[in-house]
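Handout for the seminar on molecular recognition.
Each group receives one record of this type.
Step one: identify the two inputs.
Step two: read the structure output and locate the region that could contact pyridoxal-5'-phosphate.
Step three: write two sentences on what you found, then compare them with the reference statements printed after the record.
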Amino acid sequence: MQAKEFLMIPGPTPVPDPVLAAICEHPMAHRSKEFSQLLVEVIKDLKTIAECDTDAFVFTASGTAAMEAAIANTISPGDKVLSLISGVFGARFAKIAEAYGASVERLESKLGEPISIDALKKKLSESKDIKVVTVTHNETSTGVLNDLQAIAQVIHEYGALCVVDAVTSYAACPLSFSKWKIDIMVTGSQKALMLPPGLSFVFVSEKAWQFHAKSKSPKFYFDFARYRKSLTEDTTPFTPNVSFVAGLKTALDMIKKEGFPMIYARHENLQKTLRAGVLGMGLKLFVKDQYASPTITSIVPPEAISVNTIRQSLKEKYQIRVADGQEELKSKIFRIGHMGYIFERDILMTLACLEAVLKDAGYHCPSGIGVGSALSSI
Ligand SMILES: Cc1ncc(COP(=O)(O)O)c(C=O)c1O
């Protein structure tokens, strides 16, 4: 018999049994009083996590659809959009804006580094007519956490719309949609919210509605106005994935029970423990401590051992899945996800198995040094 597969990738993440059980119940009628009540409750809780005082909507679609909706609902063809790019997902936002006819400027950081606040200030002071700025809070492809509060502040002072991808930071680290003056924020179900892929969420400020009123981009299924109108009647414009909304309610109840400060501290500890173990084994981390992601850690393999060997051996010998680098970083780094339903035990187990597969591939380090270094960092 094969051992249970373990997802240590940056999403989809493990789904807790009570969430799976809720999803597996017979689907509710989406126009029922029961479903309306469920929808109202989950939206309230989603807004609490985001610290959002305005609107939030649930889409039956993945995170990229919510990114596209953020663009479709705010820009008109020809509008100038600035995309802050620290990896694959920042670049995706730029491509979406281009697909909607925007004139896109790019501000890029070096891979493995965050967006420079000074460079952002300079860019905005030089280009007076930028309407929308897209930001990736946590860049999943590199494992960098951008300083969203500072970025949003600069964008707000400049007067542009701040559109944020919080797909791999939401519910894993503190963020404050309304206080930080973010205008649109998107996230997805398969990350720290502990659900399978399939739902995404958008948060919308009053200022974003002003942009919506002027936007000439085509929109139908993802038109925010339809979702706002339906929510006045506690419902959704189209048939939502009712089973996942039921699962989301269970996940949100688990999140509330653990408590936000505890959840954020847990993710921070997972990151610290993993980093200490990796360094203890003599491996290199791709991202410096000061902007390391709380949810994804990128690791440079030892010179003589390929990323492919590490990933294959972890999968075949221990049924643990870790991720490759993406695009330019493919085969150069491997990424361990630690968001959502992940605990210290999972990190220690991954470190022990990583050490074993490295040794099988000829790497030398003292036995147990990874787990030992991780434990002594706790
Ligand atoms: C930061 C970030 N943004 C956007 C996405 C895209 O989300 P989806 O794959 O759900 O469309 C991902 C997926 O991993 C992501 O990590």
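Reference statements: The first strand starts at residue 6 and ends at 7. The mean pLDDT is 98.
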